[in-house]
Amino acid sequence: MDLGIAGKWALVCGASRGLGFGCAAALVQEGVNVLVVARRPDVLAEAAKELRELAQDYRGTTPQVLALAADVTSEYGRQQVFAQHDSFDILVTNAGGPPVGDFRDWDRDMWMQAVDANMLTPIALIRATIDGMAERGFGRIINITSSAVKAPIDILGLSNGARSGLTGFVAGVARNPELASRNVTLNNLLPGKFDTDRLANTLAGMASKSGNSEDDVRAAQQAVIPAQRFGSPAEFGAVCAFLCSQQAGYLTGQNILLDGGAYPGTF
């Protein structure tokens, strides 16, 4: 299927590895020009190199890959982004989750950091891009949130709260007729357990705490997923690319759960 987005410009945040990189890779393979942003210059440079190699394989006009090491949670970081490229047809917001723990231990500063990174920053990026999308008659905004938005986890209270706030905001904006009628859609992707560095670090911590081997912990975690495995960044990226496609213009305001069937509910 031709997704019809070759030549568009995408801003992909947190794109140096993991799910953000998976989304950027999928878009590049569809001929989309990308600006990838992450904080660590060394890791980002390697990711950009891989993306440029993928770009060479595209059968049409080779898409551009720009890379910027910046902190988009800051106003200065966002200014750097739009100095690199001033308008985008596709926005993929993505930020690492805040610390786990007991809500009794979280002070106001920790809550504000979580809200800033996982709610206010995506909103700021949406605000900066969405009107231009509407004027051009095409826009796709994808927010990478978490399966915990749908099935909250007690130790992830900071994430539960901040990401749920973003989810509520997006639900309202996505249904604005001035945007939806101009082919601008907003959707959220809710990942379950994906085979990323973040998950590997989590499993290592669980193994250290329990005294079990990492292989045993990994196997036990996979066993409770109906698919009996973790997801891959590539398949996550493929879903993101479809949501960005011309064909997805009637899909907006939705929370797409990718978890291998782990969520037990009907809705």
Quick rundown:
By secondary structure, this protein is of the alpha/beta class.
Describe it for me?
- There is one protein chain.
- This protein has a seven-stranded parallel beta sheet with strand order 3-2-1-4-5-6-7, with helices on both faces.
- The protein is globular, with a radius of gyration of 18 Å.
- The model has no long low-confidence stretch (mean pLDDT 95).
- The protein has helices at 18-28, 41-56, 75-84, 108-136, 157-174, 177-180, 197-210, 214-223, 233-243; strands at residues 9-13, 33-38, 65-69, 90-93, 139-144, 184-191, 255-258.
- The chain is α/β, with parallel strands linked by helices.
- Strand 4 (90-93), helix 4 (108-136) and strand 5 (139-144) form a beta-alpha-beta unit.
- Helices cover 46% and strands 14% of the residues.
- The chain has nine helices and seven strands.
- It folds into two domains: 9-194 and 232-258, NAD(P)-binding Rossmann-like Domain (Rossmann fold, 3-Layer(aba) Sandwich), CATH 3.40.50; 195-230, no CATH class.
- InterPro entries: NAD(P)-bd_dom_sf, SDR, SDR_fam.
- Belongs to the short-chain dehydrogenases/reductases (SDR) family.
- Pfam families: adh_short_C2.
- This is 3-oxoacyl-[acyl-carrier protein] reductase.
- It comes from Brachymonas denitrificans DSM 15123.
Compile the SSE list and pairings:
Elements: E1 9-13, H1 18-28, E2 33-38, H2 41-56, E3 65-69, H3 75-84, E4 90-93, H4 108-136, E5 139-144, H5 157-174, H6 177-180, E6 184-191, H7 197-210, H8 214-223, H9 233-243, E7 255-258
Parallel strand pairs: 1-2, 1-4, 2-3, 4-5, 5-6, 6-7
Helix pairs in contact: 1-2, 1-9, 4-5, 7-8
Pfam family, one: adh_short_C2
Family: Belongs to the short-chain dehydrogenases/reductases (SDR) family.
InterPro entries: NAD(P)-bd_dom_sf, SDR, SDR_fam
